[in-house]
Design goal:
The chain is rod-shaped and about 110 Å long. The longest helix is centred in the first third of the chain and has 48 residues, at 14-61. It is of the alpha+beta class and 136 residues long. The chain is built from 2 helices and 4 strands, in the order H-E-E-H-E-E. A 4-stranded antiparallel β-sheet has the order 1-2-3-4. The chain has one domain (14-131). A hairpin with a 5-residue loop joins strand 3 and strand 4 (120-131).
Length: 136
């Protein structure tokens, strides 16, 4: 069929529509991946924050309920978290100076682990001073 003189056909060809759909789909795919990645990062950040707060709490608790003792203790927290506390004599003091102090210095490390095979961890470390045990 012939077009009438002075009359142009308007509209989009099938190729133009398919190209526009392909571009739209590509943009949507990239945006959805970015959104999913952001959600994953937010969840990891929340887990790290909860673990850091739990480690801080456990670190503050050590030496309060019962005296600090050199060694390792561990336990479980809610939410699938496990804690490990290690107490060592503070290595920054000479034994002579350590004996003359009215307090004893401890190097205390608390680690919170969670996730698959507890692969994710947060560790806090502090120097704690405690009264010298009477039997020394």
């Amino acid at each position: 069929m012939r077009a009438m003189p002075g009359h142009r056909e308007s509209g989009f060809s099938l190729i133009e529509v398919l190209v526009a759909l392909a571009i739209t789909a590509s943009v949507f795919l990239v945006a959805s991946r970015l959104y999913g990645s952001a959600l994953g990062a937010t969840a990891r950040s929340e887990q790290m924050t909860q673990a850091a707060l739990a480690a801080e709490s456990k670190l503050a608790e050590l030496g309060v309920a019962e005296p600090l003792r050199v060694g390792r203790t561990e336990g479980r927290l809610g939410g699938g978290h496990r804690w490990i506390a290690e107490v060592r004599d503070y290595p920054g003091l000479s034994p002579d100076l350590q004996d003359r102090l009215p307090v004893r210095a401890y190097d205390v490390t608390v680690t919170i682990a969670w996730g698959a095979a507890e692969a994710s961890t947060v560790t806090l470390r502090a120097l704690k001073l405690a009264p010298r045990p009477r039997h020394e």
